[in-house]
Amino acid sequence: MAYSNKIIDHFENPRNVGSFEGSDLEVGTGLVGAPACGDVMKLQIKVKDGIIEDARFKTFGCGSAIASSSLVTEWVKGKTLEDALDIKNTTIAQHLALPPVKIHCSMLAEDAIKAAVKDYQDKQERSKDGDV
Amino acid sequence: MSVQTFNTSHPDMIYLDYQATTPCDPRVVEKMLPYFTEYFGNPHSRNHQFGWDAEAAVEIARHQVAEILGANPKEIIFTSGATESNNLALKGVAYFNQAEKNHIITTVTEHKCVLDTCRHLEQQGFDVTYLPVKENGLLDLKKLEEAITEKTALVSIMAVNNEIGVIQPLQEIGAICRKKNVYFHTDAAQAVGKIPLNVKEMNIDLLSLSSHKLYGPKGVGVLYVGRKPRVRLTSQMNGGGQERGMRSGTLSPALCVGLGEACRIAQEEMGTENTHLTQLNRYFLEKIEHSLDQVYLNGDRLQRIPGNLNLSFAHVEGEGLMMAIKNLAVSSGSACTSESLEPSYVLRALGVDEGLAHTSLRIGFGRFTTLQEVDKASEIIISAVRKLREMSPLWEMAQRGIDLKTINWAAH
């Protein structure tokens, strides 16, 4: 399969690989996919004053999955949570020129953003309630 | 005239996909060339020298193929390749015997062309039993024996698996089939020239082979059809009645000559070649296992051809790994490129964990693989696996002692 230069660039020079401490209150973690499907993405966001100031990812998957998650770590940085949630899989797929059989990678990346934001918001809720 | 040697098209790449195909041996090509131009006759033209020359060449090739199988040349039917041979064997025997027998036995790890033909026969009303294999990829002989009924026409079991390289116990299977009086067909595409075969000693009634898996040209293969006991089959191609009426169509003398020469070389050099391949296999495996944790060899460790290694690199997805080692031509056990997202059905049949099945590479060594290439390939794979594991959330979780099976994954 021929991959676009953007996929190859993100795959060979992935941005923001790594992990934050998942228990930090300002960190939201999204873990999506399944080993049995051949794709697992972990996306973490660090939020300050409602703005995503940093992001990290780790991905088990094909080149397109790694490129999609690397790309979204760049895209979410500096965005509000609401704006981050506006990132659509179609935009990711278009930007990377994902081949049709790899569209699910971009959907997974979108899911990862949603899951990370939700995790962050849930944590904030719990801390308000004094649970954390 | 001299023929270019192997792999000058991509000198920066290392070819490690010998189960997919092999390059033509230059000695094979040399033998073939005159049959395109100088001796161009139709081997079935009985009336003049051009036809006789071509026929003589085809008959020498037939002898050479028979020789490597321990068969009689009259039992060699030239076809277009193993897919056609397998189709002819299964459909031919099934249809010919359908008045009395309607049952076929095969295994779940066969090549697609056998499985797909069996599915077709099921649609035509035949019964097919798909035997499971053990964890090591080998057939349980007891299960075979139990599956044979008086309705069984044919048992079709591959000699060497194309994905995991395991060698089925042909001698034992042949003995069971002979005892039960059913025909034994084996798809030997990955076996001919790799392991010693003798159709008489092994009680093989039908055998498929493919030229391009043993350093011959693509587009030609053979179905061996035994005469003692006599196997009769319904032809799948109607026409001039060539190949004892079993496969009509003008033969390509060049292709037949190429296959014949490939068999001659393979038979002569099998011993030294296997020594060479065993050395490469051991070197590679030891280096990988020494440098990386959690690498699993799929298929039996001993009952296998030395030219194949199917390895699972835990927590690294196979297709991503292939992209990271792009200068190595290998094959992935994960069929992620197909839209199904299903990993290899062969690995699944072995009971390999679904997650692990996605992490597999098939590495194939062959006649032209050098120790330097294997050394370089192992270095490239080791560093790619390390890099991708650093990026893998599964590796991270495993390192922290989290049991991945306890996680409630959302399948997508």
From TrEMBL, chain A:
Source organism: Candidatus Paracaedimonas acanthamoebae
One GO-annotated biological process of the protein: iron-sulfur cluster assembly
Similarity section: Belongs to the NifU family.
Domain NIF system FeS cluster assembly NifU N-terminal: 2-125
Gene: iscU
Pfam families, A to Z: NifU_N
PANTHER family, A to Z: IRON-SULFUR CLUSTER ASSEMBLY ENZYME NIFU HOMOLOG (PTHR10093)
Gene3D superfamilies in alphabetical order: 3.90.1010.10
Protein name: Iron-sulfur cluster assembly scaffold protein IscU
GO cellular component: cytoplasm
GO MF terms, alphabetically ordered: iron ion binding; iron-sulfur cluster binding
